[in-house]
Amino acid sequence: MPLIVVNKRILWADACRVWAIFGVLLIHSSGEVFYSYGKIPIGYWLSANLLDSLARVAVPLFVMISGSLLLNSPDIYSISLFNISRRVGKVLLPLVVWSMVYLWWVDSNTPAKIIDPSEWLQKFLSQPVMYHLWFAYMIVGLYVLLPIFQVIFKACESSHQFQRYFLAVWMIINCLSIYVPMPFTSPMQISMVFGYGGYFILGGLLSSTRWINVALFKWATLYLTGVLATFLITWIRTKSTGIPDELAYAYFSPNVLFASIGAFMMIRKIQFSNELGSYFLKMLSDASFFVYFVHVLLLEFLRYGTFGLQISTSEIHPAISIPILALAVFIFSLAGAVVFRMIPGSRRFLG
Q1: Where in the sequence is the domain holding 21, given as residue range(s)?
Q2: What DSSP assignment string belongs to 4-67?
Q3: Taking the CA of residue 197 as centre, how many other CA atoms within 13 Å lie in the half-sphere pointing to its CB?
Q4: Which of 30, 103, 198, 214 places its Cα 20 to 30 Å from the Cα of 162?
Q5: Phi and psi dihedrals of 71, rounded to 5?
Q6: Number of structural domains, the chain?
Q7: Residue ranges in the chain whose pLDDT is less than 50
């Protein structure tokens, strides 16, 4: 199936970004209920578990989109140091700005804490200053390694045997090891073979015609099977230990891997023909990076009613309140993107 393009936009990629960013919002909106296991009705917790399981494909989808678009680009083998630095800069500059915003926010809300910007640089260089910002660090790393991924991708395309070998090693070391202990990988120094780079290359490989021609219902079945496995494993492990267990939520777990492949290919198979809908999709996709950076701030504001509007996931059934909270954060984030982008050049600094 050819890429569906409108005004040089690849519409399935826009749809994938929108699904991914809303999935991130659902995951973070579910957290409060998920960690309240044993303190809330079991139906509440199961609803949070189900929504989280449905959305776990979000981060892998983001990485696979990038891999599909960059590795299948006509300019794939003409990458230069300038192009790499330009891509890194597009992520790094907003990361620095939003890190400062979150550092100021945390310090200003900590009693008796003196705001000291001199500490901020050390914190920024040592670890993400807010839990969701790890993603931007990871993307920077993928861009730095892009020339290496290009060589591996080319080798995978040239040899199906090498492709199977690379994916098998990556899956065994990163995915199977989630459930099967492999202590021998530590002394072998291969505890993480490329990490998210595997998802990046997988996104490029799945864009080949032979995979796109597979029937839609088969990909949907793979996605739903992965979701069901995530839901059940999380429920069983949590019930057996009495505490919330996130092992099956790991982005490298086999269940999330298979769900991510299914979701990615489902979107690749969908036909987008409505012009108004395509424009709306493009608008949402364009704002996804800004939404990712700002959403944690807005999520906290809405949870605690900072500005008078509060959406509680404990007073209303989570099956309703979690999607409402995620949607509200999405809408306010989009509104923020529209406002800030009225300022010339703001996209470079805010995403």
Answers
A1: 5-109+117-350
A2: -EETTEEHHHHHHHHHHHHHHHHHHHHHHHHTTTTTS-HHHHHHHHHHHHHHTTHHHHHHHHHH
A3: 22
A4: 214
A5: -75, -20
A6: 1
A7: 1-8
